[in-house]
Amino acid sequence: MDTPFLNQKAVIMDENAMTRAVARISYEILERNKGADGLCFVGILSRGICIAERIAAKLSELEGAAPEVGKLDITAYRDDEKHSDLADRTDIPFDVKDKRVIIVDDVIFTGRSARAAIDAVMKRGRPKNIQLAVLVDRGHRELPIRPDYVGKNVPTSRDESVKVMMKETDGFDKVVIFE
């Protein structure tokens, strides 16, 4: 059910805009990598996984073969929170060695989640390269990290937050800015 939120400032993407953004990212990935051979996706829990699966499905539709998709829990690799008591929910059922790994997240903000994801992937092997795809880039980087593929650039203030809602986890697709 699509419910309004009390502190919602603006809807920046609806279902159609999200679908177009995933398609655009998919085409850009194919163009940059000259096809889907050797590609694999690692989605950051939880909505990064949904986006990674949608991109992989689009690539399968376009190329005839679906790239592998893994799930990455970056909790243990974060530099701002330590949760050693939590179980690692990572599920990457393939070897990343010599693959072109595309890390997928819903929103990039400071870059710390992306850095943690890179560390987590590198611990599992040495990929040919690592690329980063995000649905929303809201700026305010604290680290020198820039996504390779962006669905939408959204200027925000540090006091605002961006929430991505997905059918798979929330029942509907929408991206909202909150105050």
CATH architecture assignment name = 3-Layer(aba) Sandwich
Top CATH class: Alpha Beta
**Radius of gyration over all CA atoms, rounded:** 16 Å
CATH-assigned fold name? Rossmann fold
The percentage of residues in β strands lies in 25-35%
Mean of all residue-level pLDDT scores: 93
Helix content: 25-40%
Give the N-to-C terminal Cα separation: 22 Å
Number of helices: 4
Question: Which SSEs are present, and which pair or pack?
Answer:
Elements: E1 8-13, H1 15-33, E2 39-44, H2 47-63, E3 68-72, E4 100-108, H3 112-123, E5 129-137, E6 149-153, E7 161-165, H4 167-170, E8 174-178
Parallel strand pairs: 2-3, 2-4, 4-5, 5-6
Antiparallel strand pairs: 1-8, 7-8
Helix pairs in contact: 1-2
Summarize the structure.
With 179 residues, the chain is of the alpha/beta class. The chain is 29% helix and 28% strand.
Describe the structure.
By secondary structure, this protein is α/β, with parallel strands linked by helices. It has one domain: Rossmann fold. The chain is 29% helix and 28% strand. It has 4 helices and 8 strands; from the N terminus they run E-H-E-H-E-E-H-E-E-E-H-E. It has helices at 15-33, 47-63, 112-123, 167-170, and strands spanning 8-13, 39-44, 68-72, 100-108, 129-137, 149-153, 161-165, 174-178. The strands form 2 sheets. Strands 3-2-4-5-6 form a 5-stranded parallel beta sheet, sandwiched between helices. Strands 1-8-7 form a 3-stranded antiparallel beta sheet. Helix 2 links the parallel strand 2 and strand 3 (68-72). Helix 1 (15-33) crosses helix 2. The longest helix is centred in the N-terminal third of the chain and has 19 residues, at 15-33. The radius of gyration is 16 Å and the shape is globular. The protein starts with 7 loop residues before the first strand and ends with a strand.
